[in-house]
Amino acid sequence: MLLEVVRTGRVGLGSVLVGAAVALSALTSAAEVRTGVRAGADLVARLVFLPARGWSILMVLLDVAVVARAWHSAGRAGRGGGTR
Questions:
Q1: Alpha carbon of residue 48 to chain centroid
Q2: Cα(31)–Cα(3) distance, rounded to whole angstroms?
Q3: Are 28 and 11 in contact (CB under 8 A)?
Q4: Between 71 and 82, whose confidence is greater?
């Protein structure tokens, strides 16, 4: 974020999203949740900033799958089921 401020003189929305993802993922010790938060931020950034074509669509689907797995794993851990 600091490099963007130095380069452009302002903070862009993309940098704020990445910073928020890093901060949210640092709040938990569960690796699945950290990965899910990062994939969720990437998903939002792709949907907002990139046109939906080719590889971008495949990456969106991959991000959705990672977020769904993290959500499922976090739910199982919360119910005492743990992850396997």
A1: 13
A2: 28
A3: no
A4: 71
Residue at 39: amino acid letter: A
**Tokens 């949740």, located at residue:** 33
Sign of CA dihedral 29, 31, 36, 41: positive
Render pLDDT for 28-42 as a digit per residue (tens, 0 to 9).
777 777 788 778 878
Residues 6+ apart with CB under 8 A from 64: 43
Burial of 14 by CB count in 10 Å (0-12 exposed, 13-18 middle, 19+ buried)? middle
Among 39, 55, 56, which Cα is nearest to 47's?
56
Tokens for 57, please give them: 């669509």
